[in-house]
Amino acid sequence: MDTDNRHARARRWLAALTAAALSFGSGAVTSALAATPAEASTLAEASVPAAASAPAAPDPAGEELGARPYMGWSSYSMQVYSGNGKWITADQIIAQSDAMHDKLQSAGYEYINIDAGWNDGVDEYGRPTPSATLYPDGLQAVIDHIHDNGQKAGLYLIPGISPQVYEADLPIFDAPGCSTGDIVKQPLQQADYWDIGYRIDFTDPCAQAYVDSIADVLGEWGVDFLKFDSVTPGSGIGDLSLDARDDVAAWSKALEPHGIWFELSWALDIRYADYWAEHAQGWRVEWDVECYCGDEALTTWENIARLFPRAADWWRYAGPNRGWNDFDSLNVGNGEMDGLTRDERRTATTLWAVSAAPMYVGNDLTRLDEYGLELLTNPEVIAVNQAGRPARPVSTTTKQQTWFAHNPDGSVTVAVFNLGRADADIRIPFADIGVHGSAKVRDLWARKNLGSHDGEFVAEDVPIHGTRLFTVTPAKGSTIGLNDDDARLSYDGAWSRNGGKETVAATQPLTVSVFDSSQGGTAPAQGSSNVLAVNDTDPGIAYSGNWGYSSGRGLGDHQDDVHYAETNGAAFQYTFTGTGVDWVTETHESQGEAEVYLDGVLVDTVDTHRDPAEGRGVQEVVYSVRDLTDGAHTLRVVKKSGQFLLLDRIDVVQASLLDVNGVAFDRAAAEDATVHVLRDPGELVGIYRDGTPLGDADYTREGDAVILAAAYLGALPDGATTLQFRFRGDLNDDVHWSADDGAAVELAFRGTAVAVSGPIAPDQGEVEVYLDGKLVDTVDVHAAVRLTQQEWFSKTGLKKGDHTLRLVKKGGDVLRVDGLSYVTG
């Protein structure tokens, strides 16, 4: 864990500077530095589009705070890169403001955010005071300069209150009878990741008064933005041993009257995504982007690549009515300091843009190179970011990934990323992005049209770690398919996602054992068919970072091979359907700790180190979980320490979908074999062998019975053959649902036809369908059994133009929303 400890120590050193915000006396900064020489030493070592070419960005005039991702600059990367936490002097901040005004402001960049270390003590009420050393003419003069440049100013704080302010028992401004000695939780508790301050007791009204008093000062200074760091659950702590949610709520309430943007940091816990969205405009989803490698570089490719799986976890939680997933500083402005190749710089910019992540630069703005300026000011790319439609991946199981987002005008933003080690053509089947038909394609980086294409488009020669960014505009008469997660759908009332209300597509193996008793053969024993062994070579496993592959080792590994990584931060991820999962690997003296995430949540830190005297362990289960809700889950493992991290296989425990584990076929007494399916037989898509579907003559169905023909079984080789029974699930394996009558979902579209598909089920009832404000149908989606992806409403022959479809729950226990489609016109 050396790398992460180094990051944490360096961040603690800078955070200690800001701890003085809640400390007593002007010597707090000096004391903090003197107390942490190791941290200081470590840090010193570390660091205009065409009308239809891109989605239109919102008009900033009169919009609500947080309506679009913010754009600007943050000082933290340069504080790390320079090795000087006091880099944020008045002269430096003014220089950055002026450089932004000259180079970036016309493209939309407006925030100048000063990170940790801006203060040197507190006033007589325990409120932070700016550093007189850094700002000899006062911080107010710096903020005024930022405002005079037409920009917005940001500062930094952390949860809790310092021991000095607590022990000084200072009066709280404009709160008679309240003092700082009375608002700390008893017994004393840690408030932040670095253990700098005490936790505040927000059951005491004086606590809110104290936070209000600081927010009021920030408002008086004209502060427009506050980064709130070390927020938990998050910051590497998810067990609620640290919990800053009360701080978040209090600060949100205090800042709102002043219109101050509230940004939470860092690596926030996804289980509380709705809470962060309720109280803040943005939230960091991952660790620092900085490489902490001195003045060699600001970041690394590995720190960019690890954001892809986080973006895949978080995309649906962001948007104009919620807030924004923060990826940290976008350090692409100068090739001499970024630590990235030109292709990697463009890839990072594309990922930030299509994810609608706040675009704030970490470079020294006075040193931007020509290519950096091109990346940061391309108007069509910025329009994608400011449109606020976070993209989703078609799949994360490949190194050549396609991400897409549907726009209100019917176009689709599409980005392709080559995360592999060789240049590649990346094929984009339009059906994968919800477009059925032909479409025009525009290259947003090149800012040129690429013509019309039928059914698919191929991005040719995408370089290693490179990207391409397009707008795909469907032709009239094309069908556009949307699922329940799409940002184009708006929900009214109380809605939830999944929670056991979904049905997930699933595959279950059946072992067919062929033998001949007349030749002395016997049927082999059957294993459990609901445990699926996934080898490390399975294409469904997504590897990020640098991984190697080793086979023919002769050490007893599953299928005699493993994947291995040597760089901390390297990770593998696998999405599975089932009720349990095991991570199976080797244990050895060369290995160390790894973090295990399940559905985006850190659930365990596993030590795969083995005492040298014990040799090597093979096919060891080092992490196991059972009793999960039957559905889709994602396992992610991240290397933290040791020389190696290995993956041998992943065992997935599935809910049984068949009544037997296998069948035996005796050539001497040949007869059909019968298997009963335990999910509704209407959901069985087909039976496959090695990816090829069995033909109509190979099996028949009678109710829930599947009868495998003797002629087919007799043609199989002796021994065990695996057949795969595939079952359909809800579209994209998810649904939105509501139990409240009157709850509604609405889609605005331009077209000539519209259709709704989804589950029918015993717990569902009637749904009212409105078109353009008129009730046109009442559909009963109740059924004796639950079936997925059933079309239960369609309407053709609509007049060309804009329409609105609205579905309203009228009866039943729940209404599930799954898929909607319309025909452009």
What does this structure look like?
This protein is α+β, with helices and mostly antiparallel strands. The chain folds into five domains: 2-47 and 71-390, TIM Barrel (Alpha-Beta Barrel), CATH 3.20.20.70; 393-475, Immunoglobulin-like (Sandwich), CATH 2.60.40; 483-502 and 732-824, Jelly Rolls (Sandwich); 506-530 and 656-728, no CATH class; 532-653, Jelly Rolls (Sandwich). It has 17 helices and 50 strands. Strands 15, 20, 21, 44, 45, 46, 47, 48 and 50 form a nine-stranded antiparallel β-sheet that branches. Strands 9-8-7-6-5-2-1-10 form an eight-stranded parallel β-sheet. β45 (766-771) and β46 (774-780) form a beta hairpin.
Could you name the key traits of this structure?
825 residues; alpha+beta; TIM Barrel; Immunoglobulin-like; Jelly Rolls; 5 domains; 9-stranded antiparallel β-sheet; 8-stranded parallel β-sheet; 17 helices; globular; disordered N terminus
Shape: globular
What is the terminal separation in angstroms? 57 Å
* Biggest sheet layout: 9 strands, antiparallel
The percentage helix is 10-25%
Question: Which CATH top level class of the largest domain fits?
Answer: Alpha Beta
* Helix and strand composition category: alpha+beta
- CATH-level-4 superfamily name of the largest domain: Aldolase class I
Low-confidence stretches: 1-6, 17-59
Overall pLDDT: 91
Q: Count the domains.
A: 5
Named CATH architecture of the largest domain: Alpha-Beta Barrel
CATH topology of the largest domain: TIM Barrel
| Global Rg | 29 Å
